[in-house]
């Protein structure tokens, strides 16, 4: 009987024409078929051959064929993962000695495949016990999974503790940053006794949230609640050598912070506090003008010792207002500084 060549069969597969692979019966024929499919570079051809081999070979023999063919493994793993064939995919990866990938695959599939927090938590705890807590497991990924389980447990406990409040419902199965936003809203700022996830600082520490991420989330949440006094607890840090002394520390770009506060309708004194941290007077002046901070604009002009500009700006301010008085006092201060500098030059 006529036996079509491997090349002609694969050509039909690549072109999408109907054809059967059943005539390839011996192990050597199947191996050659797979190698030529890989050489063709056609993902469809590779997958069709792989599915044929999976159906006609014992698992161990099939996996052995794949062992030396990483491109075939890549296609087959993707195929199984997309169809949520977790057990088959895991078995293959474990057989190939790719334990980390097997554990991460299980993790990613169960994270994405359900929104049921309790089911997800139980599955992840099992995966953690089966893979990530075993000797030789990757400590980084193990911590990642442990943190995620911890996050789900916190979200679930909040749901029960609040009797299913709207805010607690909204954080179910949400990211750690969204959960941080929730915690910032319920926390009594200044209370350092809490050492649980109910303390935003502790939550950030437990989940390796960066200082910049923490500050941005906390700033936005507190600003939306107009809780401006809480900014002291967010941005003031105790000095390392002197615990009574506090310093203002900001890890997010100052320009972005000021513009965001302006967008959130922060009072001018709050914006001025941040403007005062801009060291470059020209940059401070530009920012102050951009957010329409009168005090900030005046302060920047004083730093620049620009009397003419300050006088011109004063004339734009309404007489009798606090801002006008502030500008006049700033001019007096500037004049006194100018006289003092002049006297030093004379001496």
From TrEMBL:
Compartment list: Cytoplasmic vesicle; Early endosome; Late endosome
Principal location class: cytoplasm
Tagged with keyword Oxidoreductase: no
Secretion signal span: none
Matches recorded under InterPro entries: Spe-39 (IPR040057), Vps16_C (IPR006925), Vps16_C_sf (IPR038132)
UniProt keywords, alphabetically: Cytoplasmic vesicle, Endosome
Highest taxon of the lineage: Eukaryota
Pfam family, one: Vps16_C
Cellular component terms (Gene Ontology): early endosome; late endosome; vesicle tethering complex
Official protein name in the record: Putative golgi integral membrane protein
Species name: Anopheles darlingi
């Amino acid at each position: 009987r006529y036996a079509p060549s491997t090349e002609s069969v694969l050509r039909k597969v690549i072109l999408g024409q109907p054809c059967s692979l059943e005539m390839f019966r011996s192990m050597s024929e199947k191996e050659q078929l797979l190698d030529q499919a890989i050489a063709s570079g056609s993902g469809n051809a590779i997958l069709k051959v792989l599915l044929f081999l999976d159906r006609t070979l014992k698992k161990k023999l099939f996996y052995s064929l794949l062992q030396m063919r990483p491109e075939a493994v890549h296609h087959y793993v993707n195929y199984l993962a997309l169809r949520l064939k977790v057990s088959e995919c895991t078995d293959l990866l474990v057989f190939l000695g790719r334990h980390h990938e097997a554990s991460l695959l299980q993790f990613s599939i169960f994270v994405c495949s359900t929104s049921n927090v309790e089911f997800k938590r139980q599955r992840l705890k099992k995966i953690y016990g089966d893979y990530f807590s075993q000797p030789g497991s990757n400590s980084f990924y193990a911590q990642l999974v442990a943190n995620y389980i911890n996050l789900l447990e916190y979200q679930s406990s909040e749901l029960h503790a609040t009797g299913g409040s709207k805010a607690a419902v909204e954080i179910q199965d949400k990211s750690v940053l969204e959960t941080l936003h929730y915690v910032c809203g319920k926390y009594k700022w200044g209370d350092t006794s809490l050492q649980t996830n109910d303390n935003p600082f502790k939550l950030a520490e437990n989940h390796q949230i960066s200082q910049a991420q923490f500050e941005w989330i906390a700033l936005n949440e507190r600003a939306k609640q107009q809780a401006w006094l809480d900014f002291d607890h967010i941005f003031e840090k105790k000095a390392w050598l002197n615990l009574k002394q506090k310093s203002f520390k900001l890890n997010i770009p100052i320009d972005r912070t000021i513009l965001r506060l302006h967008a959130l309708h922060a009072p001018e004194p709050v914006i001025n506090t941040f403007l005062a941290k801009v060291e470059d007077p020209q940059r401070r002046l530009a920012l102050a003008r951009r957010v329409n901070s009168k005090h900030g604009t005046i302060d920047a002009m004083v730093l620049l010792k620009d009397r003419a500009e300050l006088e011109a700006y004063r004339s734009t301010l309404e007489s009798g207002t606090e801002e006008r008085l502030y500008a006049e006092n700033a001019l007096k201060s500037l004049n006194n500084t100018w006289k003092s500098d002049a006297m030093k030059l004379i001496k």
